[in-house]
Amino acid sequence: MQGSNFKKFIVVLFAFLCFFAPLEAITKQEDNPLKVTLDNKLIFTNGSQNIIIKIYSLSDKSLNFVKFTYKGKNYTLPQVVSADGARFSDGRDLSVWLVGRKLNVINNIVGDKNNQTYHLKES
User: Fold this and answer.
1) 88 closest CA partner among 63, 121, 118, 122
2) Percentage, residues of the chain above pLDDT 70
3) In Å, how far are 45, 104, 107, 109 from 71, measured between CA atoms?
4) In sequence order, what are the residues at sequence separation of 6 or more whose Cβ sits closer than 8 angstroms to the Cβ of residue 22?
5) What's phi and psi for 62, nearest 5 deg?
6) Can you give the pLDDT at residue 113?
7) Does domain 36-120 have CATH number 2.40.10.330?
8) Rounded CA gap, 43 and 88, in Å?
9) Would you say 51 and 103 are in contact if contact means Cβ atoms under 8 Å apart?
10) Separation of alpha carbons 82 and 86, rounded Å
11) Is 72 a residue whose pLDDT tops 80?
């Protein structure tokens, strides 16, 4: 009889832990919300036009992204995989690619396919 009660106790304890352990993890995530940090602000120029690129990251380092204005429109682009430099893209209309001291703007907007290269502006 004692062995049977012990087995029931173990089963109940296991079920209890399986139910409440994930709830504790969810609560801990809510207690520590993600924060956005401005990592860098760079100014690029092509001689006649400047682009200010602000590079941000989440506090858990799960995402890097840039914010900038290009041709009067505000963009926020997430970082994507790149073999060289840092590339940010919405996967559709626009990509920016930071390589060394250059910024390449790759524009895929229909009727405005105009890629441009900007150089880091000396302060």
Assistant:
1) 63
2) 75
3) 13, 15, 11, 12
4) none
5) -85, -15
6) 66
7) no
8) 16
9) yes
10) 6
11) yes
- Contact (CB, 8 A) for 3 and 11: no
Token code pair at residue 51: 């682009």
104 φ/ψ angles, rounded to the nearest 5 degrees:
-100, 125
Residue 105 and residue 89: Cα distance in Å, rounded? 10
| pLDDT tens digit sequence for 21-69 | 665 555 555 567 899 999 999 999 999 999 999 999 999 999 999 999 9
The distance in angstroms from the start CA to the end CA of the chain is 82
3-state DSSP of 37-90:
EEEEEEEEECCCCEEEEEEEEECCCCCEEEEEEECCEEEEEEEECCCCCEEEEC
Phi, psi of 108 (to 5 degrees): -110, 15
Q: Are 88 and 79 in contact (CB under 8 A)?
A: yes
| Rounded CA separation 91/31 (Å) | 33
pTM: 0.69
